[in-house]
């Protein structure tokens, strides 16, 4: 005869099992849904992103395929034919990049094979007869006309809203197209360019209206032969301590009513104009690069915009750039570690500049010069025609590949 306690325990166990089974049946639908959702998540997590062009750092040939629009000559070639300065001045990256990409091995012969589309419009070649400087009054209209032409003749702009189209904006404040920052900010980037990729000399840390689009910071244009016309940097006789030649106003507030260079150049003149260690000149001189090649330090203060062609010229000539432009963002930082080849001095510290430079001479001058005189770094800032491995156009292609990769990753994440 079974013990009553065992019967009660058995009944209790059977009841618990029956209750659990009933509970599982009632929740089976939810468990199946949970299992299905977990399976989908694990599958998607393991699925690689869509294939992207493989960029080969040692040889970018046929990696990133770019289609170059063949626009009517009024958008580009006619400007160079009218004035040779168009292809050689500090804003001429728009010309140099176009010519280099025409000979690029990765140039797509058919637009349907392209990853990106280059729109060659020269907006900095409209030289004013009044002062000889480029006038940008036509830039927005000329670009808008080019975009309408591209949209009307091919479907590629419309399918992406221009997101895979590349433009050069090599003027002071990039695609805001005005040399005065307050006006540039008020005007902003034209709406039709905001989804495109901009190659621009302007770049600052943090947010700024004139860089509110995908963009690559590029160096200002300096003719490639500058690197060859003077002795190699390590062989130059450097008998000038600190050099600057350029616009320095005695009275900081000029006729425009604005403070040029935020008064930095005026303070340089006031503090060091009579100091024999500083070679400061206000007048233009055609052979000024020979002076840079004789200098230990080349001062690169901001003008209207923070960047200056002196940055590139200094590196090419082996003169340590002394950058006085707060929050500036410099080109190709992954290749050019600027802290190793230049000095940055805050705008407010101009009065202490001599002490800073003396300290460098006493401590790590030789190290900086050795880094600066590396020919790889010089090449990275020069737009050769045709393009050469490692030069500025090559670096632009590398940066564009990174942007394209980032864009694809964003697309995959949004799809997930």
The number of helical runs is: 14
Low-confidence stretches: 4-14, 16-21, 40-62, 411-416
What structural class should be given to the helix and strand makeup?
A: alpha/beta
What is the mean pLDDT?
86
User: What percentage of amino acids are in beta strands?
Assistant: 5-15%
Strand order in the largest sheet = 1-2-3-4-5
At a glance:
The protein has 14 helices and ten strands.
Plain-language structure description:
The chain has 416 residues and is of the alpha/beta class. It folds into two domains: 66-219 and 385-415, no CATH class; 224-380, Glycogen Phosphorylase B (Rossmann fold, 3-Layer(aba) Sandwich), CATH 3.40.50.2000. Helices cover 38% and strands 10% of the residues. The protein contains 14 helices and ten strands. The chain has a five-stranded parallel beta sheet. The radius of gyration is 30 Å and the shape is globular. The chain starts with a helix and ends with a helix.
List the helices and strands and how they pair.
Elements: H1 4-46, E1 66-68, H2 77-82, H3 93-102, E2 116-118, H4 139-153, H5 156-160, E3 165-169, H6 181-187, E4 197-200, E5 215-217, E6 240-245, H7 264-272, E7 278-281, H8 288-292, E8 295-301, H9 310-316, E9 320-324, H10 338-341, E10 343-344, H11 353-363, H12 365-372, H13 375-379, H14 392-415
Family: Belongs to the glycosyltransferase 47 family.
Membrane topology: Single-pass type II membrane protein
GO molecular function: glycosyltransferase activity
